[in-house]
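Thread: "does anyone have the structure for this chain?"

Original post by V.I.:
We have the sequence but no experimental structure in hand. Need at least a predicted one for the grant figures.
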Amino acid sequence: MQLFKVVMRGPSAVVFEERKGLRIDQFPTKGGPVSIVYASRWINNSEGVRIPGDIWIEVTGEGENLDEVLTRFANAGISVLPALSLVFNAAIHEADIEIGFESTPGAKEREYFQAYLSPERTIGHVWRFGRRELALSVIDVMFRHVEAERLLRAANQYRLALESWKLGRESLSTAHLWMAIEALTKVQMRQTMAELGVATAVELAQKLGVELKQLDATLRRDRILNGNADCYKKAKEASDGFEHGYLGYEAIRENAESVRHELAKHIRASIFRLANVASATIDELTRSPYDKPVGYWPLAKYVRGTLVGTSEQLAAPGSEYPFIKWNPVVTACSVSDGKINITTKETFTAELGEGIGYNQRSYEVWEPG
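Reply from O.Q.:
Generated one for you, tokens below.
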């Protein structure tokens, strides 16, 4: 058996402090345990300022050959991403393999593999600082839980919902949140059965005073969503209408938009509760800043102004439309008090037709979602 290292990366709103990543040793795989390090790569932008890049995943362990370990190590690396996304309530996209190689000490020849991945972006995004101790406290109990497979399935649907956490994408994120509820239903059923001392679903339905065919709906509404009937009704309508195509887009979006935040709050808290995460940890993860879901999108920036001039040719020669050329640069980036602080410089150049001027009225920066 030789020693190998596989390195992956992908876009992430979760950022770890430089040189202070998260390490998990003895992570089990079918071919033997591996060590995994999750870290943020900090890169220099055009001003020489170091800003967060992708999340980097380094997996180290033994294997027979490079082809065998590439997939096995990659699957191990991405399997923890749903838990990290859930803990910090921030989007983490799936990472791709970039580098793989043999790292056996003393070897004279070592297999090597590299894939081309798009360069990391050096513009300002919405980021959230990740605390290692919080992640480890949840990962430890979730992966050892008897219902680990279903809990992680629900966490991954939550992660997928955060990938779409942006204005205009409420329907897709709500659909994934509903799938998280579906993944949790059996876990909630078995826990409720244990709490009430019954052995079958039929007995549980009788104990709760509902018909058997209404048991899943009752558990979802009253336990997973903490009795929020309005949230349950609108989320189910949005999800069913989206999946089966019987509702118009605007009706789906209206339902999704009205309950998305509340739905995410209840689902996330229920995953923690069903996984038996310590109450003190749940309290910390359900208050600011982790109570608010964060997608991975560039900051939304807008300019508003007035085009001045009587010419009908508003666009510059060779262009179809009047255009403001925008050059955003991050001039400072620091981590303090668990927050990432960035300062930007914005340069605007109006590309307009002859005799047309531009008077800028406002410049706005918004957090997407």
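V.I.: this helps a lot. DSSP finds ten helices and twelve strands in the chain.
O.Q.: and The longest strand covers residues 50-63.
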